[in-house]
Amino acid sequence: MKYLLVLLLAGVTASAQIKKEQLNLMPWPQSVVLNDGNFALNKNFKVNITGNPNPRIFGGVTRFLRRLDGRTGIFFEQGFITKLNEVPTAELQINCTKSGKIGLYEDESYHLDIKTNKITINATSDLGALHGLETLLQMLQNNNTSFYFPASKISDFPRFTWRGLMVDAARHFQPVDVIKRNIDALAATKMNVLHWHLVDDQGWRIEMKKHPKLIEKASDGMYYTQEEIKNIVKYADERGILIVPEIDVPGHASAILTAYPEIGSKVITLTGGTSEKNIQGTAIATYGIERNAGIFSPTLDPSNPKTYQLLSELFDEVCPLFPGAYFHIGGDENEGKDWDSNPKIQEFKKKNKLTTNHELQTYFTMQLIPMLKKHGKQLMGWEEILTKNMSKDAIIHAWRGPNEGVVAGQSLIESVKKGYKTVMSNGYYIDLLYPIASHYLNDPMPKGADLTAEEKARVLGGEATMWTELVSPLTIDSRLWPRTVAIAERLWSAEDITDLASMRRRLDVVSFRLEELGITHIRNKDVILRNISNNQNIDFVEEFTNVCEPLKGYKRNKGGTEYQMYSPLTLFADACTPDAKDSLAFDDAVAQYLANKTPENKAKVTAFLNKWIAVNKGLVELSANAPLIQHFLPLSKKLNDASQELLLVLDNKSTLKVDDLKNLIELCNSKDHADVELSVYESLKKLI
Amino acid sequence: MKYLLVLLLAGVTASAQIKKEQLNLMPWPQSVVLNDGNFALNKNFKVNITGNPNPRIFGGVTRFLRRLDGRTGIFFEQGFITKLNEVPTAELQINCTKSGKIGLYEDESYHLDIKTNKITINATSDLGALHGLETLLQMLQNNNTSFYFPASKISDFPRFTWRGLMVDAARHFQPVDVIKRNIDALAATKMNVLHWHLVDDQGWRIEMKKHPKLIEKASDGMYYTQEEIKNIVKYADERGILIVPEIDVPGHASAILTAYPEIGSKVITLTGGTSEKNIQGTAIATYGIERNAGIFSPTLDPSNPKTYQLLSELFDEVCPLFPGAYFHIGGDENEGKDWDSNPKIQEFKKKNKLTTNHELQTYFTMQLIPMLKKHGKQLMGWEEILTKNMSKDAIIHAWRGPNEGVVAGQSLIESVKKGYKTVMSNGYYIDLLYPIASHYLNDPMPKGADLTAEEKARVLGGEATMWTELVSPLTIDSRLWPRTVAIAERLWSAEDITDLASMRRRLDVVSFRLEELGITHIRNKDVILRNISNNQNIDFVEEFTNVCEPLKGYKRNKGGTEYQMYSPLTLFADACTPDAKDSLAFDDAVAQYLANKTPENKAKVTAFLNKWIAVNKGLVELSANAPLIQHFLPLSKKLNDASQELLLVLDNKSTLKVDDLKNLIELCNSKDHADVELSVYESLKKLI
């Protein structure tokens, strides 16, 4: 009888209808309707494709099956899918009207219809169908013994056409496998652009057959071969991702000038001769690959015809590697120091009636437009390229914000009002390790700005930027994910999808699922912690990461010289992430306790305090055989001391004067240890 | 005063002399002498290189610095090393007499001398120096605050010249990054050969420009481009590793014959005509890429001149990709079924006086020798190629053992006695998931065999084999490591280095350090467990892996059809490894208790039993939301039931009859769940 009851209960579990708010869809689709019943998965589950899709759908469906294999352990009979209409009776039917084109404004919509005995995905193009498959994977549910999809109807399409991620492969080189697995993650989160920052002061990363000096002298051997680039472009195409390459000019040019100093702007004045006769002259400066982080002066010479000759040749070699319609030429952060001190350039400005360096840079940028047009490419650049004479064909990449003395969103408004198509990155600088909420609530469409429909249409979308001064192949995934999923939702879903609690709940599952694509954000954290703890148990170190966040903004690596582009970055801060796990939970516990001082609510707070005391004790013990723990032990000690005193405070047993207590808590506001800060400091303060 | 004391104690710790048996060196060097004092590491530590080394040393030293950076968090000032004698005053001086050649019989010796203020590595070739750097990394010690090298003198050289690993990229394709990181791991463990099994029934993995059909029809799009191969060969060369490619013929030929059925041996008899007149004929069979595991009949036709024409062309394209002097042509497991049933081949045998299929295969193999010689390559093949007429130039790869009905080591003895240079793989089949001890104690030099010095010299060394029927990119590292380090020690270190306890202690540290090379054997286990537990806490599942081992030998995937070459292998067995963590510890606890039934010894045993009861309870709870746990829950239940009863037995409170108790324990000997077995079964039995 007991067994029968269990079976009955299992039956109840299996058929329990899931609610919409329990679904872990992200980006949230435009329309979701749940119906009664479930589609049960079994080994015979098969897929069939009809219509006129691009062949990329075959690989997409095969990968879909393998991921479903992996999650469910079912290992379906169907292997590789290589043809249309292979299994007309299949349970999952995918129909696409036409072949999807990789680029802007393509129809990426899809309709997913899950019935209890049949699933259909209808899409205009295979790109929409690929999105539909990702949604279907996210619809997977389980009870205690089996997997199923809940009956439902989903209609979906993106809000913005440009949903991008920029990856900087210059500061810390990012090998092919890093790029590939992140392309998979972009596809899984319905993003469609990878902006590949390939050249900067710290290196030139593209194999050049006609200009081999660039890789011989300016890459430290770390570059992508042309075949690797073509292979990645193909890989991206198969997953619906457009690649936009960037060669950053005229500033950020240390690497280019290391190979070609003759087109640099810096002048060296030579003084010689005798006391009777002074001989003065100028010479070309030499340059070296930059090892540090910062904004540097090496800049191309816009007055030198050789500069344009070389750039034209470089574009001739690089453009054919990238079939996409856009080419990013950077154009940012050129301070013009070397221009100001170069008499020839000053003369050139006068002659061409260019009154400011900004106008001079516009002159420079305008020369590049035909070089790119020749290859069917539209020029894109960071917002500094925008001046009154800039071609309206250029796409503006808005990035500056309060940190650069610009009101948030202002650059984008100016740009679209002036008639430029614009992509928004201000507010999406995920390398700065700000909390996820700040990115999630940052809408590319400026609120309250008085934009016409035409101007609004020029807001193409947004792009998360992953600059890699402090990011290595070991850590890049944890800097990218899961926060980039929140940006993906902002760019895909309806404007009013802004509930933080819902986002966090869904993100927890979507983040975990990224592991199946090879994303290392979870697994590599433990690798760093094992190194720090010197092969001892990592539980205490891991607990401490739950209350520590890496310094935000530009506070880590001040001056840009503490860490170099070859630094392995295996430190405690590199294992920590924004939105430290215990922060919100502790803040909730404190708020509940302050609102209602029941023993239960008190116990929730003291549980945290006691945990941190135990963590400190554990860390002290581990540190006897782990020098790297010393870096953050003082911070743990501060949290320990505050926790011990707060336990007394909560019991009304503290004998400290208020000021001394405040000082003790204030010590937890330290930013002096191991490049991290305590994320629970603000909540601790509330307890006194 | 208190602080002074702490400082003094720290001083004592720092200068405490380490003992030889505390060093975590592996493979253990030929000579180690410890002296007084330590070399302390700080940010100014620099390296200088002198002599006439191959430039590969520059990258090797740069990587050495980065790894030391990562371990210590010191981040040394020295960046890239690109020249000889850059820092004549550097603390670490490396001198090499000559440029090392990648191949057999090269001098790989080195002398490492660590003094308190200076370290020197002297080596004949840079290959020896690279080994010396690995030893130096393994010499790193720490106290609570700092890192240092103990003063010492090490002289070292390998016992065998062939220290290899075979990786099968045909069964489950292994992407470039998998191959690269494992080349790093081979270099770190002083191995020097990567035997790359590139072609088998399940796929052809080499891009062919002149024979594109092979990748179009027989690779499923999973192959290495020629540039990737060259890139890997270069990568291996830079790390002192010889690559030996393998194209397996004439058997294992399903992939080749999928593209070129016309050179297959299978005959199809056609019967037609009318009742008055029978028309009979033969036709060429068609072939398909094999999806399952096993030994299959598709075999090249040795009587067909086209076979040799094609092979010659294939070698012409493939050989130049591999500068090494050896080419492996497989030659194994050809059962000759299709030869026997092909009248033309039977006729060919008669005509050429080849009485057996074995002689026919020798005829075939002999044709390949000049094709390879033309490219400066020596032929190597699995032991089946050895027959009385086989050229003495061929290198024999001995692999068969008791599983194939051959006495262990017998093939090798026969081979060297007959005059062939021989590499040993029998006993090193790490894909079969046997305990590490079985590989560690397996010496390539047969004990007790009556070999002359000349015959002994023909024993080149050994090779671990990683066949990938049940191994995916996600799991390959945990199948390779750390067990391959034990084989590396067997092949490098002196014959009498056989202490299992010492090996296990050292391996624990060396295994952990492999993580810094990107080896995923530790981190990817948790990825699988997170998937199995459906994003719930993995502690209980992890604990259960500590007593579970994947089925050994050929017991998993019986018949070869349960798992396919595209199966993702994300199951519980794929997270488990040989030598499950708790097995030895529990066995020790049982042995101690049985020897001396003190309360302390009893407590050690009951702690395990209680843990397994708790694990089962935890798994039951998790399984409510994790269907994949159901696969092994019955096994956990069996261990739970046995543990509960044994607790009663230990307290003399069991009321079960002896036979019932025995049966209860015997249930723990099950091999019916989730492709694993309980590693503590034998120890449990001892308790009754």
From TrEMBL, chains A, B:
Does Coiled coil show up as a keyword for this record? no
Q: Note the Gene3D superfamilies from the entry.
A: Chitobiase/beta-hexosaminidase domain 2-like (3.30.379.10), Glycosidases (3.20.20.80)
What residue stretch is flagged as signal peptide?
Answer: none
Beta-hexosaminidase bacterial type N-terminal domain location is 23-156
Domain (Glycoside hydrolase family 20 catalytic) spans: 160-494
Q: Which Pfam families match?
A: Glyco_hydro_20, Glyco_hydro_20b
Glycoprotein recorded as keyword: no
Keywords for the protein's UniProt record, in alphabetical order: Glycosidase, Hydrolase
Q: Which domain of life is it from?
A: Bacteria
Belongs to which family? Belongs to the glycosyl hydrolase 20 family.
Q: What is this protein called?
A: Beta-N-acetylhexosaminidase
